[in-house]
Amino acid sequence: MNILYISGSPRKRSNTDYLLGLALSITGGRFIKIIDYNIHPCNACWTCLKTAKCTINDDMTEILIPLLLECEGMVLGSPVFFNNITAQLKAFIDRTWSIKGKLKNKIGGAIVVGRKYGAENAITAIHAFFLKHEIIPANRGVNGIAFKVNEIKTDFEAIEATERLALRILELHKLIKKLD
After folding, report:
1. Do the Cβ atoms of 111 and 139 come closer than 8 Å?
2. CB 32 within 8 Å of CB 6
3. What helix, strand, coil percent values describe the chain, rounded to 5?
């Protein structure tokens, strides 16, 4: 299955990456770490509204947008920073404006990891991205509670929720394929 697991975490081997990797091990797909790519923020030039192509020439336009167009779904993951997603993930999301309408009916999943507050806002931000693009949210999202390195491995509820998310993605994929 062609699912993209997109990590907005700036940390190497983060708690967010751990949960994304767990889901990926169930569904298959590709792991993308946003900090490994050169992504400039949207400059709000609105040229893409006329040309349907972003004018910024970076890894987002050259590598990631083609992957988004080809995939069957995506799971966006982020640690919770200031009660929301990271700046890296937000820049990624903003840059998808040029492909608005082209991600319709793909499957989406949300995974966030933080302390004990802000997770709902971060999941809402990811789901708002899905709804703007008419991506089908697989479920309400995963909220992991962790801060220290590898601490997520002790959040058995988040691990179980991640497994349920992955299984739901497989279920939705099967249903969508029957409709095709």
Report:
1. no
2. yes
3. 50, 20, 35
SS3 4: strand
Of 144, 167, 147, 148, nearest in space to 156 by CA? 144
- pTM beyond 0.85: the answer is yes
Cα–Cα distance for residue pair 9/138, rounded to 1 Å: 21
Q: Minimal CA–CA distance to 86: which of 28, 160, 15, 26? A: 15
150 neighbors 15 (Cβ within 8 angstroms):
yes
- The residue behind tokens 């298959």 is 28
In terms of Cα–Cα distance, which of 2, 68, 53, 13 is closest to 36? 13
List of domains in the chain: 3-179 (3.40.50.360)
Q: pLDDT of 14-26, one tens digit each?
A: 999 999 999 999 9
Tell me the pLDDT tens digit for each residue of 78-110: 999 999 999 999 999 999 999 999 999 999 999
